């Protein structure tokens, strides 16, 4: 019997944003990302390429206010589409971790796809923004993702350059997710029998 396709699509429309994300966990890292925030597009593209997930993101929103609602809601939708694509999580490795350097910066991510969303985030940023992307939204994006996906994320980054730290975080997130979602058995890795 062929394995179940781990693909999903999820849309969310509010008075502030309109977002649709398609994902294929068994893809080749092909992406098409359009959020209207250049640096954020770059980060989501990096996530796709380094996780190996095919990712399509179409997001629009009230950027005339600022990027907060769009980045937050993209995190929510990415979390929901991830949960849908994972299904009952049968056979996945469940845990993943990665350490990624970028020049002077180093990011570390450890995660558990255990059904309980939680974020521990330790990174300080020096500038208010990178391009038109607010650096403080990095933590908020991952918090939104963690809570809507039921994934426990522990993330930290050190370095002098905010661009490098954020990019290293997204790449470490990608590799940790890739490792945690590998199918390595036919069982559910939990003493409870469910994740």
From TrEMBL:
Its EC number is 4.2.1.19. It holds the Pfam family IGPD. Keywords: Amino-acid biosynthesis, Cytoplasm, Histidine biosynthesis, Lyase. Pathway: Amino-acid biosynthesis; L-histidine biosynthesis; L-histidine from 5-phospho-alpha-D-ribose 1-diphosphate: step 6/9. Signal peptide: none annotated. Gene3D superfamilies: Imidazole glycerol phosphate dehydratase, domain 1. It catalyses: D-erythro-1-(imidazol-4-yl)glycerol 3-phosphate = 3-(imidazol-4-yl)-2-oxopropyl phosphate + H2O. InterPro entries: IGPD_sf, ImidazoleglycerolP_deHydtase, ImidazoleglycerP_deHydtase_CS, Ribosomal_Su5_D2-typ_SF. GO terms for biological process: L-histidine biosynthetic process. It is found in: Cytoplasm. It comes from the Archaea. Belongs to the imidazoleglycerol-phosphate dehydratase family. This is Imidazoleglycerol-phosphate dehydratase. It comes from Methanolapillus millepedarum. The gene is hisB.
